[in-house]
Amino acid sequence: MVFLRSVGFPERESILAGRRIYLRAPAAHDYVPWAALREESRSFLKPWEPRWPEDDLSRASFRRRLRRYAREMREDKAYPFFLFKADDGCLVGGATLSNIRRGVAQSCSLGYWMGAPFAGQGFMSEAVRLLVPHAFSRLRLHRVEAACLPHNAASITLLQNAGFQREGYARRYLCIDGRWEDHVLFARISDDPDPDLIPAEALNAEDPGSGIREKEAL
């Protein structure tokens, strides 16, 4: 993993460069590829996300989104990233470290989305492996939390393979596609073992308590 200083952003918004992808803060010139990818992926993303506003893909809405991102980064509340393929700079998805809590908590929430044409190719797995060390080392957080729908086997596999531990089950936790949905809760803390040092057979083992057979990660 390589950290590169992003022009125009403070050090905490550095580009995160991996083997096949890199992550950076969203910018105004990302609007066209972002809107196109989100529109193309609408039916794919709909079951997993809050209901989109009517004007969600408009340029005006994207400008408002960027203003909110800038304010949240300034206030140390959230750090959004877009994911790009390293070979051609193609936008493939997004991820955010949000709900940052300082003081005695030093924690945040991890959320992500992947464009439909790029799902199942391991891009998000690589992104999470870049973001978690960034949260611990550069943002000096102690804990990264994540939540997913109980039937989202791909996301469950992704989180477990990235070293997250299943911690609980929250009833009607988030409003997804217009309905309050239960979520499985995961977390990784700064002194948890590095998953890249854990034998692959242990990472890929099915969790006997989940009732869900693990599938290919995002």
UniProtKB/TrEMBL annotation:
Q: Does the keyword Acyltransferase apply?
A: yes
Q: Which GO terms describe its molecular function?
A: protein-N-terminal-alanine acetyltransferase activity
Q: Which domain of life is it from?
A: Bacteria
Signal peptide location? none
Biological source species: Stappia albiluteola
One GO CC term of this entry?
Answer: cytoplasm
A single Pfam family, by name? Answer: Acetyltransf_3
Every N-acetyltransferase domain range: 21-191
Name of the protein in question: GNAT family N-acetyltransferase
- Name the InterPro entries on file: Acyl_CoA_acyltransferase, GNAT_dom, N-acetyltransferase
Q: Where is this region: Disordered?
A: 197-218
Keywords (alphabetical) are: Acyltransferase, Transferase
Does this entry carry the keyword Transferase? yes
Question: What family does this chain come from, according to its entry?
Answer: Belongs to the acetyltransferase family. RimJ subfamily.
